[in-house]
Design brief:
The protein starts with 20 loop residues before the first strand and ends in a 9-residue tail after the last strand. Strand 4 and strand 5 form a beta hairpin. The chain is globular, with a radius of gyration of 18 Å. The protein has a 4-stranded mixed beta sheet with strand order 4-5-1-11, covered by helices on one side. A 3-stranded antiparallel beta sheet has the order 6-10-9. The chain has 7 helices and 11 strands. By secondary structure, the protein is of the alpha+beta class. Helix 1 packs across helix 3 and helix 2 runs antiparallel to helix 3.
Length: 269
Amino acid sequence: MIGNDREWRPPPTDLVLQKGEVHVWRMALEQPPDRIDTLAQSLSRGELARADRFHFERDRRRFIVSHGGLRQILGRYLNLEPKLLQFQAGPYGKPYITPEFFDTELQFNLAHSEELALCAVVRERAVGIDLEYMRPLADMQSLAARYFSAVEYAALIRLPEDQQVSAFFNCWTRKEAYLKATGQGLSGGLNQFQVSLKPDEPPSLLAVDNSPTLAARWSLIALEPAPLYVAAAVIECPGADPQEEGPSREGCCRQLYTYDRGDHTTASQ
């Protein structure tokens, strides 16, 4: 069963990722200039070109810090210099470590919002993570009507008004994390599956294409990375038995570890 570790702590010196574990890393994206320069030196030419295409310096900085930080994190697991890492994209753009160069079972996913980024790392299974900064949205209900399932939309609008913003972002991050885990991105259709969203109910992927059995092949974790931020991770459970309830399936994820990069002050708004 997945442990309930929600304390963001420095990673151990002898970092090891066992099968059945999920490691989630937190990175603050506001960094001093010398730190940004160091991270930029680890990026590929393509990544530097992408960074230079941003109109605002703030967005360029966030890209450099998040992608440079990702390289440093993955480099620790693989015992490689961050700059040596090479990536390839899946059919819908999800990045993977290039297998021709690195014999690795690592799977990862990156998300960022405002001044915070999260990176989830697992072995031998698909993973997706999403992060959002919670704020009031004038068109929240119209967005929910368009992208949520009918069941999710009905659950949202029945909630007291003071719970609707957190419920909306619970739903959104959980849906994005699932689509990122499957590698489909938004092309997969946000309203083709159902997640829990109420603030007082456990996080769960309830149905995929109206099938609880398909949903049982995935594990969903809610995360609290910082005040006013909400996040979720979805991890594949290979060989999961849909007849067993929850993540008691030993083939799924046994333990969550949440790590802070440790070279910054935690971002908050």
